Amino acid sequence: MNLFMYNLTDFKVEVGDPLRDPRFKKPDGSVKQFDVIVANPPYSLKWKPWTNDPRAIGGIAPQSSADWAFVQHMIASMDRIRAVPESSCRAAFSSELARRRLSADASWTTTSWRP
User: Fold this and answer.
1) CA–CA separation, 34 and 81 (whole Å)
2) Which residue from 13, 22, 88, 98 puts its CA 20 to 30 A from 28's CA?
3) Distance between CA atoms of 4 and 104, rounded to whole angstroms?
């Protein structure tokens, strides 16, 4: 709805489960990368954790909450990382980052957002 409200017309929306079956893939089967991703995933969702997935940077999210898995999917899907979590997920996102104690100087971490 917001895409139309802001007169953005160059986009594609797919319905599905990006953790189990990403809809946007390269010919080799890896996750396709984009300049911009707009996402509002269902945080605190219970899920079946990955057993072997290249998106699983920084460890695998627990079965009780897929929060970190959605963040990992967004990171893997970005050509250059420029992501801002939707406002309702900030508490979940910040607690997951704190729990994982990710290095602020990691090559893929950049943020102007503070929890």
Assistant:
1) 9
2) 13
3) 35
Mean model confidence pLDDT for the chain: 75
d(CA 103, CA 18): 26
Question: Rounded distance, CA 66 to CA 110, Å?
Answer: 21
Percent of the chain, pLDDT > 90? 21
CA–CA dist 80, 90 (Å, integer): 21
Q: Classify residue 96 by burial, with Cβ atoms within 10 Å: 0-12, 13-18, 19+.
A: buried
Which residue in the block uniquely carries the two structure tokens 């269902």? 42
pLDDT (average), residues 20-40? 88
Q: Per-residue pLDDT averaged across 69-79, rounded?
A: 86
DSSP 52: S
Return the exposure string of 6-25: e unless at least 16 CB atoms fall within 10 Å of the residue's CB, then b: eeeeeeeeeeeebbeebeee
CA distance 66 to 56: 12
